[in-house]
Amino acid sequence: MQYDQQKVRRQWQNTVNNAQGHVFESNIKAACEHYKAQRRAKIDKIPEPFRVMKKHGEGLFTGRFTAAAEPDYQGTLAGGKSIVFEAKYTTTDRMNRNVLTQEQLDSLEDHAGMGAAAAVCIGIKDRFFFVPWSVWRDMKAIYGRKYVTAEDLRLYRVKFNGAVLFLDYLR
């Protein structure tokens, strides 16, 4: 029996990336809980829109996505301002602009246009950033390309203490 070594590598990398993405989201959730306890913000993860098609028992089911995903997190900052952001993580040295869907881009633009604090919270390896929507949107004009590196984003680096403290810039 032959196996495709590239396919196996790709599957392994996808498994690692998926696990890292879950850890990243857990670190953001910890920050949301931290900010709620401080009464600085109330921010929730927005569930993916799906419908259960068939129940298999023991908590298992077959489901189907019913709409395009909105940005991952939405809430309110102390003082009443709305906040909305998407979260993305990579194990590589760069984050591509096209990791957001057109629906997510449009939603962030709409929220920002109405005065919300809109952003993209990203992890690049072991560093974390909260990139204002206008910077993400205009990435090509600002950086001359449609991806960013950790060095590009140094002004937007946020504190990390086991939680990705996205409201607390290092600068």
Task: Count up the domains.
Answer: 1
So what's the CATH class? Alpha Beta
* Uncertain regions spanning at least 5 consecutive residues: none
The total of helices stands at 4
Helix-strand makeup class: alpha+beta
Q: Which series of helices and strands comes N to C?
A: HEEEEEEHEEHHEEE
Predict the CATH topology.
Trna Endonuclease, Chain: A, domain 1
Strand order of the largest sheet: 1-4-5-7-8
CATH architecture: 3-Layer(aba) Sandwich
* N-to-C CA distance: 56 Å
Q: Please tell me how large the radius of gyration is.
A: 18 Å
The amount of helix comes to 25-40%
Query: Could you say which overall geometry the principal axes of the C-alpha atoms support?
Result: globular
Number of strands: 11
Mean pLDDT: 90
Strand content: 35-45%
**What about the largest sheet?**
5 strands, mixed
What does this structure look like?
The model has no long low-confidence stretch (mean pLDDT 90). This protein has 4 helices and 11 strands, in the order αββββββαββααβββ. The protein has 171 residues and is α+β, with helices and mostly antiparallel strands. The protein has helices at 5-37, 102-113, 133-137, 139-143, and strands at 41-45, 50-57, 60-65, 73-77, 82-90, 94-96, 117-124, 127-132, 147-149, 158-160, 164-169. The chain has a 5-stranded mixed beta sheet with strand order 1-4-5-7-8. A two-stranded antiparallel sheet has the order 2-3. The longest helix is centred in the N-terminal third of the chain and has 33 residues, at 5-37. 32% of the residues lie in helices and 36% in strands.
